[in-house]
Every structure is written in structure tokens, then in C-alpha cells.
Amino acid sequence: MNTPIPIGQRLTLVSGTDIESYRFNPNGSVVATLGKKNGPACGPLFRYSVLSEDGIELSSSERVIATWTRIEIDGNFLRAECDGHIKTFRIE
């Protein structure tokens, strides 16, 4: 099954308040940066699993962190429904 997200490129959330950045690696790992602008941030390491041609699941060793569905790429942008919210990421 093909991966619905770009591998080896950074995805950066388009937001005025939140920080979300992900780099999906071929080995199934995801390096993330999560936080608030001008606030605390963390850099966890997740795993990803392909659920379908337009869906993935992010997980830590203990639990599922997020499910992305309806993933679509339009030019340099990726849009996905993330746990009920539509998010737009810049592909860098």
C-alpha cells in the first residue's frame, strides 16, 4: 500500500497559535515538534501506520496519539482530518 503522506519531507501546520511539525521517515518513525507559539514545545518520536490510501495513525509506545483521514495533497500543502478537525500543513 502506498503511503498517503510525503516521506522525508517536513510537514508544518499552518496556524497562528499552534506548532505542529512532522517528518515521516521510511522506517515508520515520525519526528515531531508540538507546542504553542511563544510557549512550551516538545519533540516526541512517534510511529506511523498506514490505515488506507488516505489515512494514517500516529502512535507512541503506549497509545494512539492521532488518526489522520481524508489526506489530500494540493501542491505544497497537505490537508487532513485530524481527530475531527481539518488541518492544513505546508510541505517543506
Q: What is the topology?
A:
Blueprint lengths: L9 E4 L4 E7 L4 E8 L4 E2 L2 E8 L2 E5 L4 E11 L2 E6 L2 E7 L1
Antiparallel strand pairs: 1-2, 1-9, 2-3, 3-4, 3-5, 5-6, 6-7, 7-8, 8-9
Can you give keywords for this protein?
eight-stranded antiparallel beta barrel; mainly beta; 92 residues; Lipocalin
Helical residues, percent? under 10%
- How would you state the average pLDDT, rounded? 93
CATH topology: Lipocalin
The CATH class label is Mainly Beta
Domain count: 1
Low-confidence stretches: none
Count of runs of 4 or more consecutive helical residues: 0
Strand order in the largest sheet: 1-2-3-5-6-7-8-9
Q: Classify the secondary structure makeup into a structural class.
A: mainly beta
**Biggest β-sheet description:** 8 strands, antiparallel, barrel
CATH architectural arrangement: Beta Barrel
Tally of DSSP β-strands: 9
Distance between the termini: 24 Å
Shape: globular
What Rg is obtained from the alpha carbons, in whole angstroms?
Answer: 12 Å
Fraction in beta strands: over 45%
